[in-house]
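Lab notebook, page 48
Experiment: co-folding of the full assembly
Goal: obtain a model of how the components sit together before planning crosslinking
Operator: M.T.
Materials (sequences as entered):
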Amino acid sequence: MHIQVKLFALLREIAGTDTITLEVPEAASAGQVLHQLSQQHPALQPYLENVRLALKMDFVDEAASLDEGDELHLIPPVSGGR
Amino acid sequence: MYKITTEPIDVQAVNDIVKRPSDGAVVTFDGIVRDNFDGRAVRSLEYEAYAEMAEKKMAEIGAEVRNKFAVGEIAMVHRLGALGIGESSIVIAVAAPHRHAAFEACAYAMDRVKEEVPIWKKEFFDDGDAHWVNQN
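Observation: model returned without errors.
Model output:
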């Protein structure tokens, strides 16, 4: 099945695009998609450790299972400030 | 009102929208673009968001704040795009019957926004360098 990975901020700039489409196994978990992304796009790998994952506008963990056409949003640490 | 916008924020309008006759206090936080970061001179900022989710998360934080504190209406507006020094990037207004709840709730709401709302800040320095805050 196909999953769209949505990128923001530094990740978007490194990838040079805001969307990467991946072909992944049926019912793949968010964690599996993340792993596959780091294999296929090694430049992103150092930054993937700190991202949170979002599906349908809610945070999910790596165990979340995905369906065909889902958009997995990678949420880098937010803007900070004290 | 929970809104992401590319337009300059009218701080007074955000403050006024939460007013109710039963509330004796409004505390408004106005987050301003600062001209320095870790001792380096900053020329401008750029904010990027996952806008749909950011508005949803701000509304959820508003509901959470209203459960936790004795407050009335809440409004949050965050600006996106290129901002100059001195411009408002985020404004949060909280109304309450009494001032203590309004002060506490406004501070709490701002902390929660920094934790949960998908908005990112890029700083452009005077020397031409730039970086995404918190992402390296």
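Interpretation: Residues 51-68 of chain B form the longest helix (18 residues).
Next step: discuss with group before ordering constructs.
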